[in-house]
Write a structure and sequence with these properties.
- There is one protein chain.
- Helices cover 24% and strands 28% of the residues.
- The chain is α/β, with parallel strands linked by helices.
- The chain has a six-stranded mixed sheet with strand order 6-5-2-11-15-12, with helices on both faces.
- Helix 1 runs antiparallel to helix 2.
- It is globular.
- The model has no long low-confidence stretch (mean pLDDT 85).
Length: 437
Protein backbone atom coordinates (compact mmCIF):
# COMPACT_ATOMS: atom_id res chain seq x y z
CA UNK A 1 0.00 0.00 0.00
CA UNK A 2 3.06 2.23 0.34
CA UNK A 3 3.18 2.46 -3.47
CA UNK A 4 -0.42 3.63 -3.55
CA UNK A 5 0.00 6.21 -0.78
CA UNK A 6 3.04 7.64 -2.56
CA UNK A 7 1.05 7.76 -5.80
CA UNK A 8 -2.01 9.40 -4.21
CA UNK A 9 0.10 12.25 -2.85
CA UNK A 10 1.86 12.72 -6.24
CA UNK A 11 -1.45 12.67 -8.18
CA UNK A 12 -3.08 15.19 -5.85
CA UNK A 13 -0.52 17.78 -7.02
CA UNK A 14 -1.44 17.39 -10.71
CA UNK A 15 -3.43 20.52 -11.53
CA UNK A 16 -4.06 19.54 -15.17
CA UNK A 17 -6.81 17.01 -14.37
CA UNK A 18 -10.12 17.06 -12.47
CA UNK A 19 -10.88 15.41 -9.12
CA UNK A 20 -13.01 12.83 -10.99
CA UNK A 21 -10.01 11.93 -13.17
CA UNK A 22 -7.68 11.71 -10.17
CA UNK A 23 -10.12 9.41 -8.34
CA UNK A 24 -10.70 7.27 -11.44
CA UNK A 25 -6.96 6.88 -11.97
CA UNK A 26 -6.21 5.95 -8.35
CA UNK A 27 -9.11 3.47 -8.42
CA UNK A 28 -7.72 1.83 -11.58
CA UNK A 29 -4.17 1.62 -10.18
CA UNK A 30 -5.36 0.15 -6.85
CA UNK A 31 -7.29 -2.53 -8.74
CA UNK A 32 -4.14 -3.26 -10.76
CA UNK A 33 -1.95 -3.49 -7.65
CA UNK A 34 -4.40 -5.85 -5.98
CA UNK A 35 -3.81 -8.30 -8.83
CA UNK A 36 -6.94 -7.70 -10.89
CA UNK A 37 -4.98 -7.43 -14.13
CA UNK A 38 -3.91 -11.06 -13.92
CA UNK A 39 -3.25 -12.89 -17.15
CA UNK A 40 -5.97 -15.22 -18.25
CA UNK A 41 -5.54 -18.89 -17.24
CA UNK A 42 -5.57 -20.40 -20.69
CA UNK A 43 -6.98 -23.79 -19.69
CA UNK A 44 -10.15 -22.17 -18.26
CA UNK A 45 -11.19 -20.49 -21.53
CA UNK A 46 -14.40 -21.79 -23.12
CA UNK A 47 -16.43 -20.83 -26.18
CA UNK A 48 -19.60 -18.79 -25.44
CA UNK A 49 -22.93 -20.60 -26.00
CA UNK A 50 -25.66 -19.73 -28.53
CA UNK A 51 -27.75 -18.29 -25.69
CA UNK A 52 -25.15 -15.55 -25.38
CA UNK A 53 -24.38 -15.08 -29.09
CA UNK A 54 -27.72 -14.50 -30.84
CA UNK A 55 -27.55 -15.00 -34.64
CA UNK A 56 -28.60 -11.79 -36.42
CA UNK A 57 -30.94 -13.70 -38.76
CA UNK A 58 -33.09 -14.80 -35.81
CA UNK A 59 -33.95 -11.22 -34.78
CA UNK A 60 -37.52 -10.05 -35.41
CA UNK A 61 -37.85 -7.62 -38.33
CA UNK A 62 -37.98 -3.91 -37.51
CA UNK A 63 -41.46 -2.27 -37.72
CA UNK A 64 -42.90 -1.46 -41.18
CA UNK A 65 -44.73 1.57 -39.84
CA UNK A 66 -42.49 4.70 -40.09
CA UNK A 67 -44.23 6.15 -36.99
CA UNK A 68 -43.12 3.10 -34.96
CA UNK A 69 -39.58 3.41 -36.34
CA UNK A 70 -39.55 7.09 -35.31
CA UNK A 71 -40.49 6.03 -31.75
CA UNK A 72 -37.50 3.64 -31.68
CA UNK A 73 -35.05 6.19 -33.05
CA UNK A 74 -36.23 8.92 -30.68
CA UNK A 75 -34.85 6.75 -27.86
CA UNK A 76 -31.37 6.55 -29.42
CA UNK A 77 -28.09 8.45 -29.08
CA UNK A 78 -25.16 7.67 -31.43
CA UNK A 79 -21.71 7.98 -29.83
CA UNK A 80 -18.48 7.72 -31.79
CA UNK A 81 -15.10 7.10 -30.16
CA UNK A 82 -13.05 9.94 -31.59
CA UNK A 83 -9.91 9.92 -29.43
CA UNK A 84 -7.49 8.37 -31.92
CA UNK A 85 -4.99 10.27 -34.06
CA UNK A 86 -4.12 9.38 -37.65
CA UNK A 87 -0.38 9.58 -36.93
CA UNK A 88 0.36 5.93 -37.72
CA UNK A 89 -1.07 6.56 -41.19
CA UNK A 90 1.03 9.69 -41.63
CA UNK A 91 -1.88 12.08 -41.03
CA UNK A 92 -2.20 14.92 -38.53
CA UNK A 93 -5.31 15.41 -36.41
CA UNK A 94 -8.10 12.96 -35.53
CA UNK A 95 -8.35 9.72 -37.50
CA UNK A 96 -12.02 10.58 -38.23
CA UNK A 97 -11.03 13.41 -40.61
CA UNK A 98 -9.06 11.18 -42.98
CA UNK A 99 -10.67 11.34 -46.42
CA UNK A 100 -12.40 8.08 -47.33
CA UNK A 101 -13.96 8.67 -50.72
CA UNK A 102 -15.21 11.43 -53.05
CA UNK A 103 -13.66 14.09 -50.82
CA UNK A 104 -15.69 12.87 -47.81
CA UNK A 105 -14.12 12.01 -44.44
CA UNK A 106 -15.22 9.38 -41.90
CA UNK A 107 -16.92 12.14 -39.90
CA UNK A 108 -18.70 13.54 -42.99
CA UNK A 109 -20.15 10.09 -43.70
CA UNK A 110 -21.28 9.63 -40.07
CA UNK A 111 -23.12 12.98 -40.18
CA UNK A 112 -24.68 12.16 -43.58
CA UNK A 113 -25.94 8.78 -42.23
CA UNK A 114 -27.63 10.39 -39.23
CA UNK A 115 -28.99 13.28 -41.35
CA UNK A 116 -30.61 10.65 -43.57
CA UNK A 117 -32.26 8.88 -40.59
CA UNK A 118 -33.49 12.15 -39.07
CA UNK A 119 -34.92 13.34 -42.42
CA UNK A 120 -36.50 10.01 -43.39
CA UNK A 121 -38.27 9.38 -40.06
CA UNK A 122 -38.66 12.91 -38.67
CA UNK A 123 -36.68 11.94 -35.56
CA UNK A 124 -33.84 13.65 -33.70
CA UNK A 125 -30.97 11.22 -33.21
CA UNK A 126 -28.04 13.23 -31.75
CA UNK A 127 -24.38 12.52 -32.53
CA UNK A 128 -21.92 12.52 -29.63
CA UNK A 129 -18.15 12.51 -30.14
CA UNK A 130 -15.92 11.29 -27.32
CA UNK A 131 -12.60 13.06 -27.90
CA UNK A 132 -9.29 12.68 -26.12
CA UNK A 133 -6.99 15.53 -25.12
CA UNK A 134 -5.17 14.71 -28.39
CA UNK A 135 -8.20 15.36 -30.63
CA UNK A 136 -10.37 17.82 -28.67
CA UNK A 137 -9.22 21.16 -30.11
CA UNK A 138 -9.15 19.97 -33.73
CA UNK A 139 -12.58 18.34 -33.42
CA UNK A 140 -14.22 21.50 -32.06
CA UNK A 141 -13.03 23.41 -35.14
CA UNK A 142 -14.15 20.65 -37.52
CA UNK A 143 -17.72 20.23 -36.19
CA UNK A 144 -18.48 23.88 -37.00
CA UNK A 145 -18.89 22.88 -40.65
CA UNK A 146 -22.01 20.86 -39.70
CA UNK A 147 -23.78 23.83 -38.05
CA UNK A 148 -26.55 23.82 -40.68
CA UNK A 149 -27.21 20.06 -40.61
CA UNK A 150 -30.29 18.54 -38.91
CA UNK A 151 -28.01 16.62 -36.53
CA UNK A 152 -27.40 17.91 -33.02
CA UNK A 153 -23.68 17.33 -32.34
CA UNK A 154 -22.26 17.06 -28.80
CA UNK A 155 -18.65 16.57 -27.74
CA UNK A 156 -16.99 15.61 -24.48
CA UNK A 157 -13.51 14.47 -23.47
CA UNK A 158 -12.55 11.08 -22.15
CA UNK A 159 -10.30 10.98 -19.10
CA UNK A 160 -6.68 12.09 -19.14
CA UNK A 161 -4.47 9.89 -16.96
CA UNK A 162 -0.73 10.23 -16.18
CA UNK A 163 1.66 7.58 -17.46
CA UNK A 164 3.38 5.71 -14.62
CA UNK A 165 7.17 5.42 -14.44
CA UNK A 166 7.78 1.68 -13.96
CA UNK A 167 10.89 2.13 -11.81
CA UNK A 168 9.27 3.96 -8.88
CA UNK A 169 5.54 4.18 -9.72
CA UNK A 170 5.60 7.97 -9.97
CA UNK A 171 3.40 9.82 -12.50
CA UNK A 172 5.54 10.84 -15.48
CA UNK A 173 4.34 14.51 -15.34
CA UNK A 174 5.84 14.72 -11.81
CA UNK A 175 9.25 13.98 -13.36
CA UNK A 176 9.23 17.17 -15.38
CA UNK A 177 7.50 15.67 -18.45
CA UNK A 178 5.00 18.53 -18.86
CA UNK A 179 3.98 17.93 -22.49
CA UNK A 180 1.37 15.53 -23.91
CA UNK A 181 3.82 12.62 -23.67
CA UNK A 182 3.26 12.50 -19.91
CA UNK A 183 -0.40 11.56 -20.35
CA UNK A 184 -2.62 8.99 -22.05
CA UNK A 185 -6.34 8.37 -22.71
CA UNK A 186 -7.20 5.14 -20.82
CA UNK A 187 -8.92 3.07 -23.53
CA UNK A 188 -12.55 2.96 -24.68
CA UNK A 189 -13.78 1.34 -21.45
CA UNK A 190 -13.53 4.88 -20.06
CA UNK A 191 -16.52 5.93 -22.19
CA UNK A 192 -19.06 5.11 -19.45
CA UNK A 193 -17.67 7.14 -16.50
CA UNK A 194 -16.64 9.98 -18.85
CA UNK A 195 -20.12 10.21 -20.38
CA UNK A 196 -21.55 10.38 -16.86
CA UNK A 197 -18.99 12.93 -15.61
CA UNK A 198 -19.60 15.18 -18.64
CA UNK A 199 -23.24 15.72 -17.62
CA UNK A 200 -24.38 14.49 -21.07
CA UNK A 201 -25.78 11.21 -19.71
CA UNK A 202 -28.27 12.93 -17.38
CA UNK A 203 -29.19 15.43 -20.11
CA UNK A 204 -30.04 12.62 -22.57
CA UNK A 205 -32.07 10.71 -19.95
CA UNK A 206 -34.09 13.87 -19.23
CA UNK A 207 -34.90 14.06 -22.98
CA UNK A 208 -36.31 10.51 -22.94
CA UNK A 209 -33.31 8.82 -24.57
CA UNK A 210 -32.82 5.18 -23.52
CA UNK A 211 -29.99 3.62 -25.56
CA UNK A 212 -26.59 4.63 -26.86
CA UNK A 213 -24.94 3.04 -29.90
CA UNK A 214 -21.15 3.24 -29.45
CA UNK A 215 -18.64 2.61 -32.25
CA UNK A 216 -15.19 3.64 -33.48
CA UNK A 217 -15.32 6.77 -35.64
CA UNK A 218 -13.29 5.10 -38.41
CA UNK A 219 -15.56 2.05 -38.74
CA UNK A 220 -17.84 2.60 -41.75
CA UNK A 221 -19.61 -0.70 -41.08
CA UNK A 222 -20.93 0.70 -37.78
CA UNK A 223 -24.42 1.87 -38.70
CA UNK A 224 -27.68 2.27 -36.79
CA UNK A 225 -29.36 -1.11 -37.26
CA UNK A 226 -33.10 -0.89 -36.59
CA UNK A 227 -33.44 -4.66 -36.10
CA UNK A 228 -30.92 -4.58 -33.24
CA UNK A 229 -32.44 -1.47 -31.65
CA UNK A 230 -35.92 -3.01 -31.86
CA UNK A 231 -34.63 -6.29 -30.33
CA UNK A 232 -33.01 -4.49 -27.37
CA UNK A 233 -36.05 -2.36 -26.58
CA UNK A 234 -38.50 -5.28 -26.90
CA UNK A 235 -36.37 -7.59 -24.73
CA UNK A 236 -35.22 -4.88 -22.30
CA UNK A 237 -31.56 -5.90 -22.89
CA UNK A 238 -29.06 -3.59 -21.22
CA UNK A 239 -25.96 -4.46 -23.22
CA UNK A 240 -25.23 -5.84 -26.67
CA UNK A 241 -21.96 -6.22 -28.56
CA UNK A 242 -21.98 -6.79 -32.31
CA UNK A 243 -19.67 -9.67 -33.23
CA UNK A 244 -18.89 -11.27 -36.59
CA UNK A 245 -17.20 -14.48 -37.69
CA UNK A 246 -13.43 -13.95 -37.46
CA UNK A 247 -11.53 -13.85 -40.75
CA UNK A 248 -7.79 -13.88 -41.46
CA UNK A 249 -7.92 -10.06 -41.60
CA UNK A 250 -9.14 -9.87 -37.97
CA UNK A 251 -6.50 -11.98 -36.23
CA UNK A 252 -5.39 -9.24 -33.81
CA UNK A 253 -8.89 -8.11 -32.81
CA UNK A 254 -10.61 -8.91 -29.52
CA UNK A 255 -12.85 -11.96 -29.14
CA UNK A 256 -15.56 -13.15 -26.74
CA UNK A 257 -14.83 -15.97 -24.31
CA UNK A 258 -16.63 -17.77 -21.52
CA UNK A 259 -14.42 -17.60 -18.42
CA UNK A 260 -15.24 -18.87 -14.94
CA UNK A 261 -18.95 -18.76 -15.71
CA UNK A 262 -18.92 -15.24 -17.19
CA UNK A 263 -18.75 -13.95 -20.74
CA UNK A 264 -15.93 -11.48 -21.25
CA UNK A 265 -13.80 -9.81 -23.87
CA UNK A 266 -10.30 -11.15 -24.54
CA UNK A 267 -7.87 -8.69 -26.14
CA UNK A 268 -4.49 -9.65 -27.60
CA UNK A 269 -2.67 -7.61 -24.90
CA UNK A 270 -4.07 -10.01 -22.25
CA UNK A 271 -2.79 -13.14 -24.00
CA UNK A 272 0.39 -14.85 -22.71
CA UNK A 273 3.14 -14.82 -25.36
CA UNK A 274 3.10 -18.59 -25.78
CA UNK A 275 -0.60 -18.51 -26.75
CA UNK A 276 -0.61 -15.55 -29.16
CA UNK A 277 -0.60 -17.77 -32.27
CA UNK A 278 -3.50 -19.79 -30.89
CA UNK A 279 -5.38 -16.53 -30.14
CA UNK A 280 -4.90 -15.45 -33.77
CA UNK A 281 -6.25 -18.73 -35.12
CA UNK A 282 -9.75 -18.66 -36.56
CA UNK A 283 -10.34 -22.28 -35.56
CA UNK A 284 -10.38 -21.85 -31.76
CA UNK A 285 -11.61 -18.24 -31.62
CA UNK A 286 -14.32 -17.89 -34.22
CA UNK A 287 -15.78 -14.56 -33.07
CA UNK A 288 -14.44 -11.06 -33.73
CA UNK A 289 -15.46 -8.08 -31.58
CA UNK A 290 -16.43 -5.22 -33.92
CA UNK A 291 -16.39 -2.77 -30.98
CA UNK A 292 -19.96 -1.77 -31.89
CA UNK A 293 -21.86 -1.63 -28.59
CA UNK A 294 -25.49 -0.94 -27.71
CA UNK A 295 -25.97 0.04 -24.06
CA UNK A 296 -28.94 1.15 -21.96
CA UNK A 297 -28.34 4.66 -20.59
CA UNK A 298 -30.06 3.97 -17.25
CA UNK A 299 -27.82 0.92 -16.80
CA UNK A 300 -24.71 3.05 -17.38
CA UNK A 301 -25.90 5.56 -14.77
CA UNK A 302 -26.72 2.83 -12.25
CA UNK A 303 -23.40 1.00 -12.65
CA UNK A 304 -21.17 4.08 -12.73
CA UNK A 305 -22.85 5.53 -9.62
CA UNK A 306 -22.39 2.21 -7.80
CA UNK A 307 -18.78 1.96 -9.04
CA UNK A 308 -19.77 -1.50 -10.26
CA UNK A 309 -18.14 -1.38 -13.71
CA UNK A 310 -15.04 -3.49 -13.15
CA UNK A 311 -13.83 -3.80 -16.72
CA UNK A 312 -10.78 -5.92 -17.48
CA UNK A 313 -7.54 -4.00 -16.99
CA UNK A 314 -5.08 -4.13 -19.87
CA UNK A 315 -1.52 -3.13 -18.82
CA UNK A 316 0.19 -1.46 -21.79
CA UNK A 317 3.97 -0.94 -21.33
CA UNK A 318 5.53 1.91 -23.36
CA UNK A 319 8.76 3.85 -23.54
CA UNK A 320 8.85 7.68 -23.54
CA UNK A 321 12.21 9.36 -24.17
CA UNK A 322 14.03 6.26 -22.90
CA UNK A 323 11.91 5.99 -19.71
CA UNK A 324 9.91 2.77 -19.26
CA UNK A 325 6.30 3.67 -18.43
CA UNK A 326 3.06 1.81 -17.89
CA UNK A 327 -0.40 2.85 -18.95
CA UNK A 328 -3.40 0.98 -17.57
CA UNK A 329 -6.31 0.77 -20.00
CA UNK A 330 -9.79 -0.75 -20.00
CA UNK A 331 -11.77 -2.09 -22.95
CA UNK A 332 -15.54 -1.78 -23.36
CA UNK A 333 -16.19 -4.61 -25.14
CA UNK A 334 -11.66 -0.38 -43.17
CA UNK A 335 -13.04 -0.64 -46.47
CA UNK A 336 -10.35 -0.03 -49.10
CA UNK A 337 -11.46 2.76 -51.50
CA UNK A 338 -12.66 0.32 -54.10
CA UNK A 339 -15.53 -0.81 -56.30
CA UNK A 340 -16.38 -3.39 -53.61
CA UNK A 341 -18.63 -0.80 -51.93
CA UNK A 342 -20.75 2.14 -53.05
CA UNK A 343 -22.00 5.12 -51.03
CA UNK A 344 -25.74 5.69 -50.57
CA UNK A 345 -26.88 8.38 -48.07
CA UNK A 346 -23.55 8.10 -46.29
CA UNK A 347 -23.96 4.32 -45.86
CA UNK A 348 -21.38 1.98 -47.35
CA UNK A 349 -23.30 -0.55 -49.48
CA UNK A 350 -21.69 -3.71 -50.81
CA UNK A 351 -21.52 -4.03 -54.60
CA UNK A 352 -24.08 -6.65 -55.75
CA UNK A 353 -21.76 -7.64 -58.61
CA UNK A 354 -19.51 -9.52 -56.16
CA UNK A 355 -20.50 -13.19 -56.03
CA UNK A 356 -18.27 -14.24 -53.13
CA UNK A 357 -20.00 -13.37 -49.80
CA UNK A 358 -16.62 -12.96 -48.05
CA UNK A 359 -14.48 -9.85 -48.42
CA UNK A 360 -11.12 -10.29 -50.14
CA UNK A 361 -8.07 -10.61 -47.90
CA UNK A 362 -5.74 -7.66 -48.66
CA UNK A 363 -2.23 -7.49 -47.23
CA UNK A 364 -0.13 -4.47 -48.20
CA UNK A 365 3.51 -4.01 -47.15
CA UNK A 366 4.85 -1.15 -44.97
CA UNK A 367 5.41 0.97 -48.09
CA UNK A 368 1.61 1.47 -48.20
CA UNK A 369 1.05 2.16 -44.48
CA UNK A 370 0.80 5.95 -44.60
CA UNK A 371 -2.20 7.41 -46.43
CA UNK A 372 -0.03 9.68 -48.62
CA UNK A 373 2.15 6.71 -49.69
CA UNK A 374 -0.91 4.55 -50.30
CA UNK A 375 -2.49 7.18 -52.57
CA UNK A 376 0.70 7.92 -54.51
CA UNK A 377 1.30 4.21 -55.27
CA UNK A 378 -2.13 3.77 -56.92
CA UNK A 379 -2.86 5.92 -60.00
CA UNK A 380 -6.42 4.72 -59.46
CA UNK A 381 -7.76 2.03 -57.12
CA UNK A 382 -7.88 -1.35 -58.93
CA UNK A 383 -11.14 -3.21 -59.50
CA UNK A 384 -11.37 -5.96 -56.86
CA UNK A 385 -14.92 -7.25 -57.35
CA UNK A 386 -13.60 -10.71 -58.28
CA UNK A 387 -10.54 -10.68 -55.99
CA UNK A 388 -10.06 -13.39 -53.33
CA UNK A 389 -6.71 -12.29 -51.92
CA UNK A 390 -3.98 -9.75 -52.63
CA UNK A 391 -0.51 -9.64 -51.12
CA UNK A 392 1.85 -6.81 -52.06
CA UNK A 393 5.46 -6.59 -50.83
CA UNK A 394 8.23 -4.13 -51.71
CA UNK A 395 8.46 -1.08 -53.97
CA UNK A 396 5.32 -1.68 -56.07
CA UNK A 397 3.43 0.98 -58.07
CA UNK A 398 0.00 0.46 -59.69
CA UNK A 399 -1.15 2.17 -62.89
CA UNK A 400 -4.73 3.21 -63.72
CA UNK A 401 -7.64 0.92 -64.60
CA UNK A 402 -6.09 -2.31 -63.27
CA UNK A 403 -8.32 -5.35 -62.62
CA UNK A 404 -7.36 -7.92 -59.97
CA UNK A 405 -9.06 -11.35 -59.83
CA UNK A 406 -8.67 -14.53 -57.79
CA UNK A 407 -5.45 -14.89 -55.78
CA UNK A 408 -2.82 -12.30 -56.65
CA UNK A 409 0.64 -11.84 -55.15
CA UNK A 410 2.97 -8.99 -56.21
CA UNK A 411 6.50 -9.10 -54.75
CA UNK A 412 9.18 -6.59 -55.76
CA UNK A 413 12.72 -7.80 -55.13
CA UNK A 414 14.72 -5.65 -52.66
CA UNK A 415 16.00 -2.47 -54.34
CA UNK A 416 13.85 -3.02 -57.47
CA UNK A 417 10.91 -0.78 -58.44
CA UNK A 418 8.04 -2.84 -59.90
CA UNK A 419 5.39 -0.99 -61.94
CA UNK A 420 2.09 -2.60 -62.88
CA UNK A 421 1.05 -0.94 -66.20
CA UNK A 422 -2.27 0.85 -66.86
CA UNK A 423 -5.16 -1.45 -67.80
CA UNK A 424 -3.45 -4.70 -66.69
CA UNK A 425 -5.81 -7.59 -65.86
CA UNK A 426 -4.15 -9.95 -63.35
CA UNK A 427 -5.88 -13.20 -62.42
CA UNK A 428 -4.52 -15.93 -60.09
CA UNK A 429 -0.92 -14.85 -60.62
CA UNK A 430 2.27 -14.47 -58.63
CA UNK A 431 4.25 -11.51 -59.97
CA UNK A 432 7.94 -11.16 -59.05
CA UNK A 433 9.03 -8.92 -61.94
CA UNK A 434 7.86 -7.26 -65.22
CA UNK A 435 8.27 -10.56 -67.09
CA UNK A 436 5.39 -12.09 -65.07
CA UNK A 437 2.76 -9.46 -66.01
Amino acid sequence: MEKLDHLKSAVSSLSQISENEKNGFINLVSRYLSGEAHHIEWSKIQTPTDEVVVPYDTLAPSPDDPAETKKLLDKLVVLKLNGGLGTTMGCTGPKSVIEVRNGLTFLDLIVIQIEHLNSKYGCSVPLVLMNSFNTHDDTLKIVNKYANSNVEIHTFNQSQYPRLVVEDFTPLPCKGQHGKDGWYPPGHGDVFPSLMNSGKLDAFLSEGKEYVFIANSDNLGAIVDLKILNHLIRNKNEYCMEVTPKTLADVKGGTLISYEGKVQLLEIAQVPDEHVNEFKSIEKFKIFNTNNLWVNLNAIKRLVEADALKMEIIPNPKEVNGIKVLQLETAAGAAIRSDLYTLVDGFVIRNKARANPANPSIELGPEFKKVSNFLSRFKSIPSIIDLDSLKVTGDVWFGAGIVLKGKVSVVAKPGVKLEIPDGAVIENKEINGPQDI
